[in-house]
Design a protein that fits this description.
- The protein has about 150 residues and is an alpha+beta fold.
- The protein has a domain of about 90 residues.
- The protein contains four helices and four strands, in the order ββαββααα.
- It has a two-stranded antiparallel sheet. Strands 3-4 form a two-stranded parallel sheet.
């Protein structure tokens, strides 16, 4: 926020504590994206997300999902077309999706107040849809030389 030197501008601040979580996975080479907006960050929701990833993987292909050590990333059942690569603790730079979350927050989610849970849900869904609709954005944020096959 810009302000005149010596002044204290007023900024919007959310007073209630209601959340939703965007679960997302992307393929930089194909720019395919799978996302769910779910009410919690827990193992049940993560399992739903992995199921959605498994359903979206084209026949004959295999997905590698990079995950950090978050609590809700710990428990999941195996899927025949999805493997998980756990990155070391405290190494978010190894997870390309971290740039996605920062980009979405900066562009569509921060510095605003929400009326209620439905408003939060609607804005989160629209933010994910806008992000995935930006041509070349997934590739630019998530491509890594070390991840090429």
């Amino acid at each position: 926020m810009w302000a005149k030197k010596g002044t204290r501008p007023r900024a919007l601040k959310q007073q209630q504590f209601t959340y939703t979580s965007i679960y997302g996975a992307v393929c930089p080479s194909t720019e395919q994206a799978v996302g769910l907006v779910l009410p919690y960050a827990n193992t049940t929701c993560m399992s739903l997300h992995l199921d959605e990833i498994a359903r979206s993987v084209p026949e004959g292909r295999h997905a590698l999902v990079i995950m950090d050590g978050a609590g809700w990333h710990q428990a999941f059942h195996a899927r025949s077309n999805v493997s998980v690569l756990k990155i070391p603790p405290y190494s978010p730079e190894l997870n390309p999706c971290e740039q996605i979350w920062q980009y979405i927050k900066d562009k569509w989610l921060k510095n605003r107040c929400y009326k209620d849970y439905d408003d939060i849900l609607s804005v989160a869904i629209k933010a994910w849809q806008k992000f995935t609709a930006e041509d070349g954005r997934i590739r630019s944020l998530c491509s890594r030389d070390w991840a090429s096959i």
